[in-house]
Design goal:
Layout (H helix, E strand, L loop, with lengths): L25 H16 L4 E3 L9 E5 L4 E13 L2 E5 L7 E7 L2 E7 L5 E7 H14 L10 E4 H15 L1
Antiparallel strand pairs: 1-2, 2-3, 3-6, 4-5, 5-8, 6-7
This protein binds zinc ion.
Length: 165
């Protein structure tokens, strides 16, 4: 396994539409393993292949207990709404407020080509939406109704806590 370089905002690969995976071969397995290692090393909860410069429809998501592999993922159902902070390894030191569905169900293949369904709420649903958008060349910054620096976000949390106290 090896760490891959994470591309940051402004790199044209992040704005391109990724192609479906058609061969479930060793190269895909290496890519998935490298993406998992790269995401964990960077303390991320999700990573999409275009973020490491590979324009294929491949995503990894850390569910806490396990890291799942989403190859050619498609959203099947979504419902509800949540409103909250979001970050991205490709947009370092920034936080944005984004509205997302609160529940998302999707289907995706694993490294062998077998289809599975996954569902998640709150952070996981948010992460599914965020990562799938990377595959179509979109960053969450396009959707955020407010962008802040990490520092500004921490200040905002602090003042909210003080208001509640
Ligand atoms: Zn991202």
């Amino acid at each position: 396994m090896a760490l891959r370089m994470i591309l940051t905002e402004g790199n044209p690969s992040l704005n391109k539409v990724s192609r479906p995976v058609t061969s479930f071969d060793d190269r895909l397995a290496v890519l998935l393993d490298d993406m998992k290692e790269t995401m964990t090393h960077a303390n991320g909860v999700g990573l999409a292949a275009p973020q490491v410069g590979i324009l294929r429809r491949v995503v990894v998501v850390d569910l806490g207990e396990e890291i799942i592999e989403l190859v050619n993922p498609r959203i099947l159902e979504q419902s509800g709404e949540q409103d909250g902070p979001e970050g991205c390894l490709s947009v370092p030191e920034r936080v944005g407020l984004v509205k997302r569905p609160n529940y998302v169900k999707l289907e995706a293949q694993d490294r062998h080509g077998d289809w599975y369904e996954y569902e998640g709420e709150e952070l996981i649903a948010r992460c599914f939406c965020h990562e799938l958008e990377h595959l179509d060349g979109h960053l969450y910054t396009e959707r955020a109704y407010q962008m802040m620096t990490q520092e500004e976000y921490e200040q905002m949390l602090k003042s909210q806590e003080e208001e509640e106290a």
